[in-house]
Every structure is written in C-alpha cells, then in structure tokens.
Amino acid sequence: MKFGIFPIEGGDRWTGVVEQCQLAEDVGFETCWVNDHQATEGDNYWPSPLTRLTSIAEGTEDLELVTSVLILPLYHPLHVAQRAAMLDNISDGRLTLGVGLGYVEKEFDAFGVPMDERAGRMIEGLRFIEEFFEADEPISFECPFFEVEDWEPLPETVQDPRPPLWIGGWGDKQIGRSVKFSDAWVPGVVADLGIVEDRKELQQKHIEDSDQEWDEIDHPLMREAVIAETEAEVMERKQYLHETYLEEYGGEFSHPLMTADSVEDFEELADDRFIYGTPDQIIEQIEAMQERFPLDQLALRFHHSGMPKDLVEDQIRLFGEEVIPAFD
Hints:
About 40% of the residues lie in helices and about 15% in strands. By secondary structure, the protein is α/β, with parallel strands linked by helices. The strands form two sheets. It has a nine-stranded parallel sheet. The chain has a two-stranded antiparallel sheet with strand order 5-6. It is globular and about 60 Å long. The N and C termini lie close together (about 5 Å). The relative contact order is 0.15. This is LLM class flavin-dependent oxidoreductase. Keywords: Flavoprotein, FMN, Monooxygenase, Oxidoreductase. GO terms for molecular function: alkanesulfonate monooxygenase activity.
C-alpha cells in the first residue's frame, strides 16, 4: 500500500508547502497529490498543479507526484504534454498525470471553453499526450479542437514508454473512458464509499472487455482525513473538516455528488466517507475499505479550512509513525 498526502493548498503564499512534503517523505509517505481548481468558494485550492509539483519535485528525493486531477479540457494539450514531460525529467521519473473533465462552469467561462466540448477535448487531449510521450519522431495531430503539425515531442520522458495516465470522474461514461484511454480510474474525496464500491464494480466490468488486467492496474483513492491521539482531540479537529464542506458546498459552489443539505450534519456527512479517528481506529477503517474493493494507493487530505499549519503537520507525523507501519 502506498500512502500519499495533499499538501496545504490555498492561501496567499506558497511558503512552507515543500517543507510539509519533506516531512511526509521522512515519515513514510510515498506520494504527493495536488488538485486543480481555478475558482472556489473556500480557501483550500490553488491552480497550476504542474507548476506546484515542479517545486515539490525539487525539494524532495523520492516522493511520487500525482495530479489528481488536472482539468485537461481547460488547457491546450501540447502545453500540458510539454510541461508534464519536463516535470517527469526534473523529478527523474516520478510523475503520474491524472486528468478529469471538470465541473465548475465559472472556470470554463473564464477559459473560454464550452462545457459541452469537455468530454471530446479530454479524450482527444489524452490521445495526443500519449502520442507525444511515446513518439520518437515528429508528430502531427488533428482533431476538432486543436491541430499540431510536424512537432518535435521534446523532452523525452524519463519513464518508458511514458508516465502513467489516470482519469477521474464518477459518471458511467467517465468510468468507461478511464479504461479505454488511461491506466487507472482515480476516485475523488467527495463520494461515500458505497458509491466508490459501485463504481469499482462498473470499472471491473469494463476491464473484463479490455486489454487491461484487474489485478495488475493501480487502484488509487483520495479521502479526507482527521487523526489525533485521543478521541477528544479528533472531535476538536473534525470541526475544521466540517467547515471546509460548509464553505465549499453550503453555498453556490456545487458538486455533482454534494448539495448544501448534505453538508449540514457532520456525522451524516462523514458516515462511510471520511477517514477519521485515533491511529488504531483509522487502521481498522482502512482495512475495512480493502475488504470492500481493491485499494493499493491512498492519498489523504489533512488540511482543512482554518486549520493551523502545526496541526496539519502533527497529523502527517502521527499518521506516518502510527498508521503507515501497519501496512508495510
């Protein structure tokens, strides 16, 4: 099992993020994941995931780097391919490029991209990026959304034949696309585990009709997390997580699987969704998840609205020292 973190996102300054990733690496985390939002009602997101991961790559030694997920339809795929290839070089082959459709209309309006084109743009973008990564001679690519002619695909990626490609998203079509156009499906933090379990069953059905092998592909998962040494401390820290969801989904910033009503009661919201408790309780929760569906990479977000930086780092340290060894 690989464990990962989402380092602090959002706020006025980048200061301290790399140090937090260094701490995570020191206590046993193997991966670092970053999201991609251009607009949010909360304070827990930054844009430019490949730029952020480049900084983290320079400050760490072995931490694997994951975009989960980059909203591919918002960007020109040539730009993404070049930036991703450079990051794979800078990090000496530590990149996994996860992409998704996006769902925030405000972001598409700002970038001048019609939302009804997002599926086509994502599919064609992935096809181009894969060709860019694997080509050993100039490439030409034409589709309804962009055209590249006789282009030298530089730099070559360190990973051979290319970095892993993942797709996130919850719809039936998106699950099918994850099998057809990528190496893995990556579930986000918002849905409860019952929905994850249902979607994994659908993914497996698609895998059966593909060239992939269910037992050989990656099975990643993202979850919100709160950990403390005592239950009393857990109850105090969970308020920050609740505030995150009240800020982000209690107003106009909606998600296909989350409504304002669904975030009002924390216990109802957290049930079968969040990972929270003492180290022993969390070990039991993760083991129970592994019994429900395949899981070999778990990325956790410990930072929540208004949480002091030292509490975030305390959680990273406690999880690394007390939980990760149970899965070695």
